[in-house]
Amino acid sequence: MDGCRMIARGLRYRGSDWTPADERALLAEWETDPLRDKLANLDVKKHKDMLPLWKTIIHFFSCFPTSIISPKNHLRYGGSFETEDGRVIEDPNWSKVFCRRFANVALHGAFNLQPSLLALAMLYVAVCRTDYRGPIPWRNCTTEKFLDLLLNGMRAQDGSKSVVQVHREVLGRLAIDGIIPISCISTLFRRIEEMAFRENAGPPFRPEEVPVFEVTVGDLTTLTRAADSVKRAGVWVFLPVSLVSRIAKAARRDQGEPKTLEHLNELRAAVILNDRRLDVVHSREPRESPEGEEEWIDEVWGDEEDEDTDEEGEDGEFPW
To answer: Looking at the structure, do residues 152 and 200 belong to the same domain, yes or no?
Structure first.
């Protein structure tokens, strides 16, 4: 079993709160799902950069592109398509320009190969572009006090202040506390504000529920330019995106990434299905785990040989 298929197999949720009947229903629904046909009809010329993008993100981040641009992070791809019954669904086949820009900016030193930090930066571009004035849905797992103050400031305000104003107030407080030098993330955010912020002439954009923001090619271009312009004492802090991407391509070795579009679609389908399994499980009330359900997976998928399981991580983790 090749590395890509092993990753796809590892994505199958095996919790005792997911039954064989649940799995059969999920797979039956998937047979007529418009997303399935969309994956199968991937245009090799129009979307030729999907495969390199997935290879890059899997290799350097140990996650998927759709783990970063994901509704769980309040982000979605800016393209969509209409189904036969009139529904509008996010297009799973991202454009070649979008994929190329995503793969390049993801490797920028400003994000330190941290998926959550990259997602925050994308969120910040969207927040500035839309003049969103509500809570920024991100949990600070870094030691940056600046981020704590900024997130708290956006959460506590009533919508009368833009993110630019809140940022300035945070910088003023840090200066009073004598925290110097200012965070590189703050500098990055200021560059993003200069390039992306557009004040909304209408009522403050602060909906009750935090929206899912579209990520566009323009957003990724803005983020790339902003990251490349971060300086300290007049000196660039990070290598430019163009140089980092070339170094990364030369350094990359195969670690189970999809090698063909067929492998890519198999992996993408596995990601979508597993997300749906988890959505169903999380929507249910907690219940006691019945005995004897832990072996259900073989009943649905058939008795596959497990000779490669020693290489597979626990709980579906990647094997590297």
So the answer is: yes
d(CA 284, CA 226): 43
Nearest Cα residue to 252 out of 57, 7, 51: 57
Same domain assignment for residues 104 and 244: yes
pTM of the model: 0.80
> Cα(12)–Cα(273) distance, rounded to whole angstroms?
8
Binned at pLDDT 50, 70 and 90, residue 315 comes out as very low
- Kindly state whether residues 109 and 217 are assigned to the same domain: yes
Structural domain containing residue 84: 33-252
Pairing verdict, β 88-90 and 235-236: unpaired
Amino acid at 116: S
Total domains, the chain: 2
Instruction: Give the Cβ contact number of residue 149 at 10 Å.
Output: 21
For 16-59, the pLDDT digits (tens) are: 788 889 999 999 999 999 999 888 888 777 778 888 899 889 88
β-strands 231-232, 235-236: how paired? Answer: antiparallel
